[in-house]
């Protein structure tokens, strides 16, 4: 798992006036470099699913709710938004399982993993809403709307990496 690596270098790094010339720890930078490609892939999948969420929400509103005269109903609009989120989260699970976390998932989909993915998404959504409500008190709306994107990305990636698709321990080779 990468979290212990992240915390490890504090004691392994050379100190000022220390006679050690090499470091065995990789620290935060090494972990960031190692996880960087996964973070980038996760971000691309997330951006794509932001478009999916938007398209479903707006499409449902214009193609279904407006013709039915329900475009001003909070319940109907809430349902359209919920449907957009569910489709986007489901699509995100499939894409991340098959690409970003292919090694960890074995490119297999499971109901248990999907449940953990949705739960981590709900936590990310809660962080997004809470950080927006806090940011909007101190920043102009345009900036306050950006803060939750970063906050929820960190939470979503962290939860997905640590809980949904944790690294599999290395299996020692059989020396028979």
UniProtKB/TrEMBL annotation:
Coiled coil: none annotated. Signal peptide: none annotated. It is a multi-pass membrane protein. The chain crosses the membrane at residues 40-70, 82-102, 114-135, 141-159. One of its GO terms (biological process) is polysaccharide biosynthetic process. Keywords: Membrane, Transmembrane, Transmembrane helix. It is found in: Membrane. One of its GO terms (cellular component) is plasma membrane. It holds the Pfam family GtrA_DPMS_TM. Residues 42-165 form the GtrA/DPMS transmembrane domain. Belongs to the GtrA family. This is GtrA family protein. It comes from Phreatobacter aquaticus.
């Amino acid at each position: 798992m990468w979290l212990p690596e992240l915390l490890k270098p504090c004691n392994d790094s050379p100190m000022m006036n220390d006679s050690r010339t090499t470091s065995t720890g990789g620290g935060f930078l090494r972990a960031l470099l190692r996880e960087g490609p996964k973070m980038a892939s996760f971000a691309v999948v997330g951006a794509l699913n932001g478009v999916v969420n938007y398209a479903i929400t707006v499409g449902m509103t214009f193609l279904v709710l407006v013709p039915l005269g329900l475009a001003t109903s909070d319940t109907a609009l809430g349902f359209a938004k919920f449907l957009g989120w569910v489709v986007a989260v489901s699509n995100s699970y499939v894409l991340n399982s098959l690409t970003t976390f292919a090694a960890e998932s074995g490119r297999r989909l499971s109901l248990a993993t999907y449940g953990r993915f949705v739960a981590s998404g709900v936590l990310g959504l809660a962080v997004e809403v809470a950080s927006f409500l806090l940011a909007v008190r101190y920043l102009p709306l345009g900036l306050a709307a950006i803060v939750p994107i970063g906050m929820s990305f960190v939470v979503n990636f962290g939860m997905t990496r640590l809980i949904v698709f944790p690294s599999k321990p290395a299996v020692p080779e059989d020396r028979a």
